[in-house]
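worker-03 picked up job from queue 'complexes'. Input manifest follows; two sequence lines, order preserved.
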Amino acid sequence: NAGVTQTPKFRVLKTGQSMTLLCAQDMNHEYMYWYRQDPGMGLRLIHYSVGEGTTAKGEVPDGYNVSRLKKQNFLLGLESAAPSQTSVYFCASSSPSGPTYNEQFFGPGTRLTVL
Amino acid sequence: GQSLEQPSEVTAVEGAIVQINCTYQTSGFYGLSWYQQHDGGAPTFLSYNALDGLEETGRFSSFLSRSDSYGYLLLQELQMKDSASYFCAGRDNYGQNFVFGPGTRLSVLP
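worker-03 finished. Artifact:
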């Protein structure tokens, strides 16, 4: 099992450009999440999804959009990138039941720089 | 909403015991998790407390007191590889989301 994978691993954008970050999980998890982590800080929830076709806003959703067209994939979009969106983005997944119910599984992260 | 507080840094020597505290203010709460994150890496799950009391997993233990809005992570027999950031995370009452604390950077000295 690959667990949670993220594409790309690194990206540099210019202000105003757009991009999509892809998250994929092979654990058949219902829940998926996008977080951002700024230097020396904790994780802040951007958007999340509790099932295919559903999305909801987290703590810091402005400037981002998401889609969950397939259960295994969760996409994070930046329509017009700003320097304030320079951060490390982590995707995570979890299950609403079973032995790993209380655990979030994280991807390796995407390091995004907006110039 | 939820907000959690942790000390920013803790330093200890190899072989020692260290406790990392987490206090929280929340209007709805379902449990407390702990995650470890090495520099440049992703967070990895350590433990979860749904009920008051102590949960033990090898060298790591986690404690929760819901009446005191307080929990801690206890690391025993510290090793150099334990140098990392440790995050507590509160789970909302719907069981869907976690809110993360700011993290505690643990440095283990030889």
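worker-03 released lock.
The CA atoms of residues 52 and 70 of chain A lie 6 Å apart.
DSSP finds no helices and eleven strands in chain A.
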